[in-house]
Fold:
Amino acid sequence: MAATGGAAATSVVVLDRGNNTTCTINLHGATVVSWRVNNQEQLFVSKLASFDGKRSIRGGVSFVFPQYGAWSFGAQHGFARITRWNLERPPERLHNGDVEAIFSLMDNEFTRSMWNYQFRITYRLILREKELHFHIGVYNPSKELSFTFNLLLHTYLKVPDVRRCQITGLHGCTFIDKTRDGAIYQEGREVVAVNEWTDRIYQHTPQEHIVTNVVSGRKMRIHKYNFPDTVIWNPWIDKAREITDFGDDEFPNMLCVEAGHVSSPVILLPGTAFEASQIMQIIIEGNVSRKTKRNR
Structure:
């Protein structure tokens, strides 16, 4: 349940629940680089992703903090995903067979060079039979200073063909369309499909989304708490060519559905904490799809 062999032994942590169900976390950015259920990979990582310990890892689930998007003080999407995290508690098997590990990040010389605040983040991951749980706590230990931040789980789902995926829970929500200079629209579709370059921040979204036609044609439930925004992203053909650590032909096989607090900042007062969580669950319900088709 601990680390892998080779040169990456000190940088990779593996949760192993048995039955070929594992979760692999790279301490660089506390990036979840693999989630396998019954030996089937659920997350997309680019074949050109960099593992040099300097830039962010392209794919998986990366931790965006304290900034979403371009940042005049440092790297895009902040420093959390390009900083080495601490393994606070090594993988441990719980009484029900699930496996958990806890990671942490505190301010240091590197973070303070960009963002001069004290902070502490705890990141608890729990691997269940067909679920992966993410629990986040951000604490402000200062006695005097408040700070504001964005937080996002930049989640890349692996899919057979993004054009066949649909996302529920976005109907009626307003969204900021970053492909159209940040114009704001309202989503009129009952389910959202991606057929072009898409970069949208959906605001005040419900706690649950269902994504259809992920690995093996199954559905993925994403349940979130204290994340009011949902980002949907796919670079499509032209933008994929502009991204150096992303293959030109990889865009059909990934879909980003990202829980976050990004359209407005979190304001954290001295001595207080912010908590948020996400659960990703694979739905295996063969009968449901047949019932749904009969009802249409």
In short: DSSP finds three helices and 18 strands in the chain. Residues 1-9, 287-296 have pLDDT under 50 and may be disordered. The chain has one domain: 12-283. The longest helix spans residues 286-295.
